[in-house]
TrEMBL record:
The gene is thrS. Zn(2+) binds at residues 368, 419, 549. It is found in: Cytoplasm. Residues 306-572 form the Aminoacyl-transfer RNA synthetases class-II family profile domain. Keywords: Aminoacyl-tRNA synthetase, ATP-binding, Cytoplasm, Ligase, Metal-binding, Nucleotide-binding, Protein biosynthesis, RNA-binding, tRNA-binding, Zinc. Residues 1-69 form the TGS domain. It catalyses: tRNA(Thr) + L-threonine + ATP = L-threonyl-tRNA(Thr) + AMP + diphosphate + H(+). Residues 1-32 are annotated as: Disordered. Belongs to the class-II aminoacyl-tRNA synthetase family. This is Threonine--tRNA ligase. HAMAP family: Thr_tRNA_synth. Its cofactor is Zn(2+).
Length: 676
RNA sequence: GCCGCCUUAGCUCAGUCGGUAGAGCGGUUCACUCGUAAUGAACAGGUCGACAGUUCGAUUCUGUCAGGCGGCUCCA
């Protein structure tokens, strides 16, 4: 990765500023990373004046050098990228006709794209895993060689995709822009080829494989050890464009050790156990009947409880926060979406029109146009602002068949959508209000770890966005300032804005560290103009409001999916479809527990009793599998004492709790939205 | 939408190298059942995703479509 602009480095610091544990060294005479750190097995490359270099590359005098270990982010990238090279070597060893695409490191692993006549099968992957293991075991050396463009073209004459990358570089485009990951192959500086050498240093040494690559690499394939495994293969468009040919991409994972690989595989297994699609079926929450159509969920009674409780709570909180609950239809004449400006941008993702009595109607894909009509239904005074309209809007989006996925990507969804109409002066306070409100709501549902993404217009694509540069700059500043005030991490997303204005989106981390995009706050100065929205100002003039869109969860369906995975189906009491399951030790105690259940129901608790003729142990098993927060057990000892015994989902137990206390305890757990 | 794989009972899956199918769980019934993750037995349940084609015969082979899974692209 030579000569590429890189993040600030320690060369900018005076020696006294260096607080990191890794010491830097300033070279006085030419040397190499291997000379400096050769005795440290965990050092895989060096950072020379902020850029990563191979260990055996000669470093000039006067450079600031620091070691990069295999377990730090840069070191892991090097490890994974080197694994990608081994994969490519294995592929061409088995199939010399395979043409190379690109092979960058990605989160937790790497991939490499190949143009091959036949897609890879699972058996192919097994064979490749074995071939890779052999290459790793034989300890090939990665050797860097600088080449001219002419030399590179000659050596890579048989690799059309590599030649294309050289061409991109030659044309002066930024390789990073040209193809996601292509910068791994061709940097912005000199061209290099990496050779894999068998028996390096010996007379018999042979170059067994080579690839155009900016590097750097591990010194030796042996370092990959037993931490590498191929995961799957899939197709991917060359350079990320659907206009280009499809290549076959092989994904792998790579870790510094076998144990870390195993830990990663265990994390994947845990994610699979939590998969909301699996739990949704097991817990009888929802389904996607083929007869209805792809991406259109139905909620079963237990899933319906969760959805209703979520909605009830969110509606109540909105009302407390000054929102007015409104209702709008699922369908409208399509002129409305021309007025709003949506149709030219989103026609592809709206269901096609239906012709009724000479008018074209469309299923609603967004709620804002209808809320605008509510605003416009009569004259508005500045005294009414901020005017906040909120509803659970059912919207339908024609998502392409390949992207529909569980509850997280559907074609029919319920948005917890609000639109605040404010004066331009009120906008910053309202954005702040919405953002804090959203974060507090998410915390009530048990999510506590957030970062924000701020999506702005992309000047390179003027056709995608509406409005003047000044309006965009002003709107972006409002969002930026409020987002900064939260103290949360801010990630820029240039080009990610809606056509009508910039947005902040909230990303939440779940219990196993995955992030999900949830709510958004969007600043819109375009639709008020399109709809001619006005209010009367104190001086009697007509003024244009700004509208601020906000969905707190994004969609109820997706958020339910996130919650199912976050809690692994073990919901906090207030959300659990069944909060209490009473299990009599024997039939003789049925009536005793029926009475307890009746007392709980009188307090609004979702309590059931297991009156089946299963044996006691089986009933415990069933209760456990249902993930009910409180299992209440009663037998002779409990009944005599006027008590019940609690059994919790982790198997722990609290025996002999007086019935009145038990009811109070359960009611309190629901009221406090407690997890038990 | 694109590429690959998949679709057999409510669920999870066997199976048929072309002669219309099985298990476990779940369901129903009966018997049993007084303390912490499976009591036993019997019964019911399937146009083998849909539609074409090849064939004496298709759940099995071929094609198209639908749905699912994994990616790519997209995601107001």
């Amino acid at each position: 990765m030579s000569d590429v602009a890189s993040p600030p480095t320690r060369q900018d610091l005076t020696p006294g500023d260096v607080t990191e544990t890794e010491a830097t060294t300033t070279t006085t005479v030419p040397t190499t990373g291997a000379d400096l750190y050769g005795d440290r097995k965990d050092v895989v490359v060096v950072r020379v004046d902020g850029t990563l270099w191979d260990l055996d590359r000669e470093i000039p005098g006067g450079a600031v050098v620091e070691p990069v270990t295999i377990d730090e982010p840069d070191g892991l990238d090097v490890l994974r990228h080197s694994a990608a090279h081994v994969l490519a070597q294995a592929v061409q060893q088995i199939n010399p006709e395979a043409k190379l695409g690109i092979g960058p490191p990605v989160k937790d692993g790497f991939y490499y794209d190949f143009d091959v006549a036949e897609p890879f099968t699972p058996d192919d992957l097994k064979a490749l895993d074995k071939a890779m293991a052999r290459i790793i075991k034989e300890g090939q050396t990665f050797r860097r060689r600088v080449v001219t463009e002419e030399e590179a073209r000659a050596e890579l004459a048989g690799e059309p995709y590599k030649l294309e990358l050289i061409g991109i570089k030659g044309s002066g485009d930024d390789a990073e822009e040209a193809a996601d990951g292509a910068s791994v192959e061709v940097g912005a500086g000199e061209l290099t080829i990496y050779e894999n050498v068998r028996g390096a240093g010996r007379e018999s040494e042979t170059v067994v494989w080579k690839d155009l690559c900016r590097g750097p690499h591990l010194p030796n394939t042996k370092i990959l050890g037993q931490g590498v495994k191929l995961m799957r293969s899939a197709a991917a468009y060359w350079r990320g464009s659907e206009k280009n040919p499809m290549l076959q991409r092989v994904y792998g994972t790579a870790w510094p050790s076998k144990d870390e690989l195993k830990a990663y595989q265990e994390r994947l297994a845990e994610a699979e156990r939590r998969d909301h699609r699996r739990l949704g079926t097991e817990m009888d929450l929802f389904s996607f009947p083929d007869e209805i159509g792809s991406g259109l969920p139905v909620f079963h009674p237990k899933g319906g409880v969760i959805k209703r409780v979520m909605e009830d709570y969110v509606r109540q909180r909105h009302i407390e926060e000054g929102f007015d609950y409104v209702g709008t239809p699922h369908i409208s004449k399509e002129g409305l979406f021309h007025t709003s400006g949506h149709l030219p941008y989103y026609a592809d993702t709206m269901f096609p029109p239906m012709d009724l009595e000479g008018s074209e109607y469309r299923l609603k894909a967004m709620n804002c146009p209808m809320h605008n009509l509510i605003f416009r239904s009569r004259g508005r005074s500045y005294r009414e602002l901020p005017l906040r309209l909120f509803e659970f809007g059912s919207v339908y989006r024609y998502e392409k068949s390949g992207v529909v996925q569980g509850l997280t990507r559907v074609r029919g969804l319920t948005q917890d959508d609000s639109h605040s109409y404010v004066t331009p002066d009120q906008a910053p306070a309202e954005v702040k209000h919405l953002l804090n409100f959203m974060l507090s709501l998410l915390k009530d549902f048990g999510l506590n770890d957030f970062y924000l993404e701020i999506s702005t217009r992309d000047h390179a694509k003027p056709g995608k966005f509406v409005g003047s540069d000044e309006d965009w700059a002003a709107a972006t500043k409002v969002l930026q300032d409020v987002a900064t005030e939260t103290g949360l991490e801010l990630v820029p997303d240039p080009g990610g804005a809606a056509f009508y204005g910039p947005k902040i989106s909230v990303q939440a981390k779940d219990a196993i560290g995955r992030t999900w995009q949830l709510g958004t706050v969007q600043y819109d100065f375009n639709q008020p103009e399109g709809f001619g929205l006005e209010y009367t100002a104190p001086d009697g003039t007509k003024q244009r409001p700004v509208m601020i869109h906000s969905a707190k969860f994004g969609s109820i369906e997706r958020f339910m999916g996130v919650l199912i995975e976050h809690y692994a189906g073990q919901f906090p009491v207030w959300l659990a479809p069944v909060q209490v399951l009473a299990v009599p030790v024997a039939e003789a105690f049925d009536d005793y527990l029926k009475d307890v259940v009746a007392q709980l129901k009188a307090q609004g608790i979702r309590a059931e009793i297991d009156l089946s003729d299963d044996r006691f142990a089986k009933k415990i098993r069933n209760a456990s599998k249902q993930k009910v927060p409180f299992t209440l057990i009663a037998g002779g000892e409990d009944a005599e004492a006027g008590a019940v015994s609690f059994r919790f989902r982790d198997g722990t137990q609290e025996n002999g709790v007086l019935v009145a206390e038990a009811v109070e305890k359960i009611v309190a757990a629901v009221r406090d939205r407690a997890q038990v």
